[in-house]
Amino acid sequence: MMARTLVWLLLLLNVLYWSWAQGWLLPYGFGPLSQREPQRLAQQILPDAITLVSQADARRNPVAVAPEELLCLQTGLLDAAQVGALRPYLASAWPADSWVFEPAPGARLRLPALNAALQARVPEFSTVVPDVVFETCPEPEAKP
After folding, report:
1. CA 13 to CA 72: how far, in whole Å?
2. What is the pTM of this model?
3. Fewer CB within 10 Å, N- or C-terminus of the chain?
4. DSSP 8-state symbol, 34
């Protein structure tokens, strides 16, 4: 008698759990929490532009990525006050490998490999040293 009651109780609990898991008890205020994230769907940028391909297709048709175009800029000759104003700004706000001061009779700031993101930041220099002017770097001379 006790075993029969236990079997019926377990069967009833299983049916209740299954109903809860399927969401059939949601109208009565019982059910699992929804696991949807509609805000992520709203943040997608061009989701239709993604194409899934098999690994074999990816090996047969590799995607050619164009190298990012880099630009080299340099200033005219700078005096000690301009160098003193630029050096702390560059050390704190620019990547260390993106700039160099070249000694000359004066000093010259050289930005040897600017990607698009750093090129967009070049106008910031006018807030540090208003009269700084950039020009493209001369082509290196070919050695015979």
Report:
1. 73
2. 0.48
3. C
4. P
Q: Give the DSSP letter of residue 129.
A: S
- Which residues, in sequence order, are CB contacts of 132 under 8 Å at separation 6+? 75, 78, 82, 86, 109, 125, 126
- pLDDT, residue 15, reads 95
**Host H or E run for residue 74:** strand 71-75
**pLDDT tier at 8, thresholds 50, 70, 90:** very high
Number of H helices, E strands in the chain: 6, 4
* CA 132/CA 20 separation, integer angstroms: 70
* Separation of alpha carbons 126 and 111, rounded Å: 15
Contact 101, 107 (CB under 8 A): yes
Give pLDDT tens digits for 76-102: 888 888 888 888 988 888 888 888 888
Q: 114 forms bridges with which residues in the sheet?
A: 71
